Amino acid sequence: MAKKPKKLFAKFAERQCSRLSESNSWCSFSKTKGNPYGFSFCVNKMNFEKVFLVFRKKYKEVPLEIFGNNPYKTLVSTLMSSRTNDDTTVKAALRFFKKAPNINKLAKLEQKEIEKLIYPVGFYKTKARHIKKLAETIVKKYKGRIPPTREELIKLPGVGRKTANLVLNRAFGTPAIAVDTHVHRISNLLGWVKTKKPEETEKELEKILPKKYWKDINRLFVSIGRQYRSKKNLVKFLKENNLIQ
Fold first, then answer.
1. Domains plus CATH for the chain?
2. pLDDT at position 36 over 50
3. What is the maximum alpha-carbon separation in the chain?
């Protein structure tokens, strides 16, 4: 008997969300582990515009953006950056690209040499192994060209969805939501999502965030996250700009 009221409430919530979607809100209605009955939540459309407007005004360049739209350098530097400070990554990447300016030169390097070049990035030995195999795969399978699709990118050694989405965004201009710790944390603080893992955040943002914002969300949220590193300072910034209550 207890299940019936919950099901009725779920149907009511879905109807309410449906009505709001006809007005000025983006709505989500889906079943998840933390939301087994598919309860809805709605986000005001204007909040997206305001958040991105404020974040653009406060934007400071993210270090890894210096590699611009170069697919090779974007891919390798992003792979290096996992669990590593961006400033440390940039120094290592610049040193590395002097020795291996393109994928063909990289494929000829020994793993030990790659390790020395990318040190002290985190897990440098594991990353060196992945970078070596990645280069060999791209040269052999893709004739030295970085594949332009997520499906192909995530098949490369060491490449996950975040790295793939960043490469698609920065190097190929393909709209994709790259979720790292900054995007995950800020999206939750804004109340856009209620998730525990970045992978969950990506899926939820794809449901509610208009595509026109996909290409900028990572660079803007990372920039803000770097400027306000503690939760206290970040929350203060969001409140001062009337982005949260």
1. 70-172 (1.10.340.30)
2. no
3. 69
As given in the structure block, the two tokens for residue 41 are: 């939540």
Residue 68 confidence (pLDDT): 83
pLDDT by residue (tens digit) across 163-172?
999 999 999 9
CA dihedral 160, 181, 43, 174 (to 10 degrees): -40
Active-site amino acid positions: 162
The b/e string for 176-185 (b: 16+ C-beta within 10 A; e otherwise) is bbbbbebbbb
> Residue 204 carries which side chain, given as an amino acid letter?
E
Q: Is it the case that residue 26 has pLDDT exceeding 70?
A: no
**Cross-strand partners of 165:** none
- Measured in whole angstroms, how far is the alpha carbon of residue 62 from the centre of its chain? 13
Beta strands in 83-179 (DSSP E): none
